[in-house]
Every structure is written in structure tokens, then in C-alpha cells.
Amino acid sequence: MDPAVAGQYVLNGLMLGMIYAMVAVGFTLFFGVLDVIKFSHGDVVMAGAFTALATLGGLSAGGVVSAAVLVVAATAVAVAAMALLGALIARTLILPLRNAPSLNTLLITLMLGLALREAVRLFYPNGSNPKPFPRLLPADAWSAGGFSLRADSAILLVAGLSAIVAVHLIIHRTRLGLAIRAVAQDPETARVMGVNFEAVVMITFGIGSALAALAGVGDALYYNEINFGMGLWLGVIGFSAAVVGGLGSLYGAILGGFLFAALQTVGAIWFAVPAYKDVFAFGAVILLMAWKPTGLIAEKSAERV
Amino acid sequence: MSATPGRSSLPVAVAGVAACAAACWAFLEAESQWVVAALAAGVLAALPVLDRTGLRARFDAAVHARRALAPALVVTAAFALALVLRDSHFALLMLASVALYVTVCLGLTLQFGFAGIANFAGAAFFGIGCYSAAILAANTALPHLLAVLAGGLAAAAVGSVLILPILRTRGHYAALVTIAFGILFRTFLEVNDVLGGPQGLKVPGMRILGWSFNDPPPLPGGVEASFYLNYVIVAVALAAGAFVLVKRIESSWIGLSFDAVRLDETAAAVCGIDIARWKILAFVLGNFLAGTAGAVYAMMSGFIAPNSFTFGDSLILVSIVILGGVGNPLGVIPAALLLLILPEKLQAIQEYRFLIYAVLVILILLYRPQGLLPRRLREYSAPGPRP
Amino acid sequence: MSAVLTAQGLTVRFGGLTALDALDLELRPREVLGLIGPNGSGKTTFFNALTGLYRPAAGRVVVDGRDLTGATPQAISRAGVARTFQRSRLCLSLSVFDNLMIGDHRNLDHGLWANLVRRRYLARQVGQAQARARELLAIFSAPLAGRMSEAVAALSMIDRRRVEICRALIGGPRILLLDEPSAGMTHDETHELMADLLAVREKLPSLAVILIEHEMNVIERVTGRCMVLNYGRKIREGSYREVAADAQVRQAYLGED
């Protein structure tokens, strides 16, 4: 294969991997802190993208023209809104169910995701059709040979990486992060030590959802199109990435995200029918799960026998 | 709990089933949407009243007092309803569809309610049954009853492949794998022109021993009936068979093993229970039921297309199981009737039905997780002197 | 006199932590062996390794002459080893009878034909099983034997413990591992429990038992021999009196000099 084409594939794969990693980190955070799989996470990504779109619409109507301002403002609003939504979900749906069988939480978040999807489809103006997202990032590209690096790709990669690093720093370098890790390891002891369990859970969900909003906006800025169903498959991929990497491990989620993107890229190259890349990537993930049920980086063991 | 079935329990059981049948008749025959909405409101308001007065518990106990009472009553009610509504294509099609969905949801009850395996690809396994029967009926001379069986076996076979990798893993992995399968199945159908692609496939009507199901049935006395009556008979028979199967499993050592696997795998393993064996059995058997129902559905509809087998459709099936009461096979019936007939009659909410179901299930899980008919304690044989 | 169960150099590690350090243990026929030690000393880890829930990093487990190191929990159960758990692992939403039958899994016919078609045969099996269960429960408490069709969730703590012990016993095991049966019980309930354990000894004399306990009264009354663990290692072995007087043991428990 032509190295320039290969390079293009690699770059696209990296972009995808970054988005998947951001979604996967959310899943791993939620599982780590509460042993919960929040299946609506992918749809929060979608909601973040739509919130950004709505904000852009409002700002443009208000006369704002500067692309930089638009991007920053829309991102900020989306992130804040989704963080609030995440905390709200934790408060009203997840926390009340924490003593019920874990399948109940799985079900309720699955249904929540469906509700979010349908709400956007039904109530957002013309929601059932894909909606174009404005090109706000600089369109110039830097070329060498047949390979070109677009400025927007670079910006998004850097932004995504910074976000993940920021989350890592929060978890490992701040007192809040310490509280989160304490709750993840042993909620009862953490409570006894004075950690406000409910607040920590809500904040963790807020952080994860904020990251999801970033992923949504990044996805929207890169592909310039969003639709109400984009969150479902993204959520499935993010979850499998987190699982393959090892649920509960931050590095595992990142690894899983890029791994899934790599598998999809390989699948896209091998198979003529584009739909099969997903089947291939997912089949490979299932085999990986069968081989290492606790993930490539071991899943946090949740059970005391 | 009484030790022996009292004489008073039979009237309660009959009255309850008759009331449900009457409500169904009203829903199916209602012409205006306002009437339907009023009926629906009435049913919803009746539920807490039934709870408070203890009638719901009495009905549940009465219906389970005798071994074969529940399926006998329900089958009788279904056929009575079908005969009363014999002229209406729509009503009979609805009844048959409900019966087939009940069969699928009984399969889901085996997997999810008993063995604790989440299956979010119910519509996909249903679809496997549909497409298998469609291809066999259209391209081979295989007798249609065998084609129905083949549909079930195909779904069971695919299920056994799907479950093998996730046997060693935890509950949410099964959910993930079935969700992915449920989403990818439709894509798989659309890209394969052999299966008709996005446009779908035509399916010949059922023929058994020369009796064509797409012709109106020859009823005595020159009485006229829609040809769907044939399918109602098959669908209700299938659902009754599935019900008896599921009840027998539940009230046996097999059902107990399923429960042990669902409730505490570690304790079950230490007691010598082979976790993998029971998970496989539950999953494969449940999918077999879904596949056979799908095969009959395909021949009844005459036409199948990928957009009937989406992930959303799988979620509807799961909603029915949850609404009915996870682990109580009888609860599936009223739940299926509600969730399938209402949106057909209330055209205004058709568009919103996914959203409504999602919110409904969320509310149930938050406030009444046991559903319409809560799961009962196991009774192994006909009730007699209790231990 | 050959041992019923032998552990040789059994080692269990979790990442960098050695929970069990080259433990040697021998369980003789018909004896009740006490296993004591401060929290975290590896007692439950030992049970988990014995019953196949943890994979040992080193060492051997031999039951009745058969090497069962690294075997699955199911295989170990088939070899006649039964246990209870420190944190009660009963199926609360199932009836007492159902919970016992989970323990009797080996002796029940699980064939599809037998369960689905031969219903009268199944009913006979159920009847026989009910009689067996009633008999076993009656060793502990006659009223409990009359509550077999109730959900376990409706039972008191001590009755639940009894059900869990019966679940372990109903399959007819050769070795019974009891993990802190008196945990969470009041003084009076512990007394009742002690009487229960002595009744078990009397009714099932061929059973060999390893008993993990923190209640020293129970250990003193019920066990013949004792083993003390600390930090995953055996530090003393002998009768309760010998062990209780040992200076090293006292230091491990009480931190005395």
C-alpha cells in the first residue's frame, strides 16, 4: 500500500481512536466508582453534539461570527450541560438503584439511552434527519507527498489528548480524585472516612459526561454531520473498548479505544463491503474478551468472596 | 397461602381472564381514538385498585392453583375472542401477532428471568426464524411445519455460537454482545441481497397437509371468517406450548439450577452446579422459541424486511418482559397485549411509542420493579399438603 | 491414619500481596479442626483456595488421596467438599427447600426428559427430597423444618445460618468447611449455634470439619485440634488450651509483649 494512503488511514484511525477513548474513559469511570454500566453514555455524546449545534444556532442568530468564539462557546455550553445531565442521571436513576440487581441498572440506562435518542428525534427541529455541523476549525492542511495533515485533525487530536490527560490528573493528583479512587475501591470505608458518597458519585458521572460532550463536539467538528442515532453505536464501541482494555482501568480504556479504531481500520481495508468493518472489529473484540475475560489490563475485581 | 385449591379460586381465575378478554375486545373494536384513550386510562387506573384490594394477588394465586388452569383459560379466552372477532382482519392479525410475541417473550423469560442472561437481540433471533422460514418455504419443498422447526433451530444454533465466548464473563458482557448482535443483524440483512437486501423478502403463506392458510377457513354453518383465523390457531397453539414448556422448566430441578446460576454463581459453583451448561441451555432454548415464532410470523405476514428487526424492536420485547413481571411467565400476556395493541389503536402515539415505552420501563424499574405479576415462589408439583 | 484432606505448601498471591504463605495443613478423619487468627490472616483465602475459587500460586491440595490442586469448584464439590460462606450466600428470594436442593445438586436428576415429561417421577423425587430436607433441618430446629416452603428472606439470622449449613450438608459431603458461622450473632444465638454444631457432630460422626471462628468459646467446646494463622502463615498448632496459652499467638491477636 502507498505510504501516503497508509498514513491517511493511520491518521483517521487515530482520530477515531481518540473519540472512542474519550467515550471509553467515561464507561470505565462509572464502572470504577459504582460498578455500573451506564448504557446511555453514547447517547450523552450525541446529546452533547446536539447541544453544541443548538448553541451555535443561537449564537449565530445573535450575530456572533468569530469561529474561535463559536467553537469555544459551543463546547463550553455542551460540556456544562452534559456534566449537569450526568450528575442528574446519577442522582435520579443510578443511585436509587444501587442495591438492586445490577441488571436493573443496566436496563434503566439502556432505556434512558433510548429515551434520549427518541427525544432528540422527535423534539429537535427536523431531528430525524442527519444535520450538518458547521465547519469551524481551520481548513488548511499541511502536505508532504500524497499525505496531508489537516489542521482540524491536529487540533482535535491535541484537544482530546489534553482532555484525557486532564482527567488522569484529576483522578491521580487531586483530593477529589483521591475521593473518587477511595469510593471505587471501598465505598463503605470511604464513607466512614468522611467522603460524601453521593456527591462523589454525582461528580464522577459529571466528569464522565463532560468528557462525552467533548467527544461529541469533536466528532461533530471532524465529520461535520450529526444524527440522532450516532450515540448508540458509539456507546457500544466505547463500552467494548473499555471492556477489552479492562473495566476500571483508565489506561485500559484508552488502549481499548485505539485498539478498536485500529481493528475497524484494518477491517475497512480488508473488506469490500464497508459494513463488515464493524462486524470484523466486533468479532475480534469478542474473541479478545473470550481470551482475556478480565480485559487486557485486568478489570478491577469487584467481588469479595 | 392455602394448601389446597379452594372452590372459591376457580371463579376468581375465570372472572379475571374473562375481564382481560373483554378489555381486549373493547380495545380491538373501538373506533375512535378517544374511546381507546379512555379505555387505556381506565385500565391504568384499575391497576392500583386491583393491588389495594388484594384482587391481583388473589387472581394470581387462583390462576396458579391448578397446574393446567392458566393455559387452558387463556387459550379458551383467545379462541373465544377470535371467534367473536372472526370478520376483522386487523383484530385477528393483532391476536396472532400478540401470541407470537408472547412466545418470543417466554423465551426471553427463560434466558433473562430464570437464568439471568440479558438478551438484547430478541428481535434478531426472531428475524433469523423469519428469514430461515422464508428462504426454505420459497426455495424448497420442505413441509412448512418443518420449516418452522428449522427457523427455531437456526436461531438456536446462532445463539449457541454467540454465547460461547461470553460464558466465562460477567452479566454485562452478555448484554454487550447481544446489543452488538442486535444492532449488526439489521446491517447484515441489508447488505446481503441474497436475503432480499433492504427491500425485504416475500414469503409464501403457510400450507399444512394441503390446507392453505391464506384462504379463509371452512367453518361449519357457512360462517365467514378472515383467513387470519388460521394463523391465530397456530400462533395460540405455539404460545400455549411455549407456556407449558416454560412453566414445566420453572417448576423442575432445571428451573432451580437456572435460579441458582442467576442469583449467585459462586455459591452455585461451590455446590457443584455446572454454570456453563445451564446458561447454554437457557439461551439456546429461549432462542429456539423466538425462532419458531419468527417462522410463523413470516408466513403470516407474507413479507419481511430488515427494518422490522432493529435494536429498538429488541428493546420492545425486553419492555414486555419487564412490564409483565420478570420471571412470571403469565405476566407476559397482559404486557404484550398492552404494548402491542395500544399503539396500533392510538395512532396519535404511534410515533412516540419508543419514547413512551422507555419512560414506562424506567418508571417500573424505579417504583415497581416486580412488574404486573410479581414472580412467585417455586411450586414443584400440583399443590397438595405443603411441607 | 491417612488424612482426609491435606494442603502442602499452599500459596496464594494477589498481585504483590501474599495472602497465604506455604501453608501445610492436615485434616484427619472425623475430627473438627479449628482455624483461628486475626482478621486478614488468610483463613477465608484458604477456604477459597481449597474450594477452587482461587488458583494457588504454589502448593498442593489432596483430598482422599486425589490431587485436586487447581481443580474447578464443581470438581471439588464432587469430591465431597462442602462449605459455608462468611458473608451468607443464600438465595434470599427462594424458599428454604429450594436453597437446600441447590446443595443437593449432585443427587438430583437433571435430565430434560425426566424434568419435562415424566412429571410423576419428578413429583416422587421432590417428595423424597422434601423428606430428606425435613430430617436434616430437624437436627437443628423443629420449627425450621416446618418452614421449608417460606422464602429465606423471612428467616432470622440464626435460622439462615442453619439453612446454609444444611445446604452444605444435604449433599452428603465428607468434608465440611464452616466459615465463621457465628458472625453477626448475639450471645444467645452463638450458644444455640454451638449446640447445633455439637448435634451435627453427633448425627454425622463420619464428617470431618474445618471451622473458622472468632468466638473462642465455640472453638474450645467444639474443636479437638486448632491451627493459628497470622499473615498467611501457620504460627501454632495444637489443642485450644495449648494454643491459647502460647505467647506468639497472644501477640498476634492482642499485640502483647
Name the beta content range of chain B: under 5%
Based on CA inertia axes, which overall geometry of chain A fits? globular
Counted beta strands of chain A: 4
Q: Going across the major beta sheet of chain B, what is the strand order? A: 1-4
Number of strands of chain B: 4
Short structural description:
Chain B is mostly helical. Chain B has helices at residues 9-29, 33-52, 55-65, 69-84, 89-114, 122-139, 144-163, 171-191, 228-250, 253-263, 265-270, 275-301, 311-324, 332-345, 347-350, 353-367, and strands spanning 201-202, 207-208, 211-212, 303-304. Chain B has a two-stranded antiparallel ribbon. In chain B, strands 2-3 form a two-stranded antiparallel sheet.
Describe this structure in words.
The complex is a heterotrimer of chains A (305), B (387) and C (257). By secondary structure, chain A is mainly α. Helix content of chain A is 73%, strand content 4%. In chain A, the strands form two sheets. Chain A has a two-stranded antiparallel ribbon. In chain A, strand 2 and strand 3 (147-150) form a beta hairpin. The mean pLDDT of chain A is 87. In chain B, a hairpin with a 2-residue loop joins strand 2 (207-208) and strand 3 (211-212). In chain C, a hairpin with a 2-residue loop joins strand 9 and strand 10. In chain C, helix 3 packs parallel to helix 7 (157-169). Chains A and B meet through helix 4, helix 9 and helix 11 of A and helix 8, helix 13 and helix 16 of B.
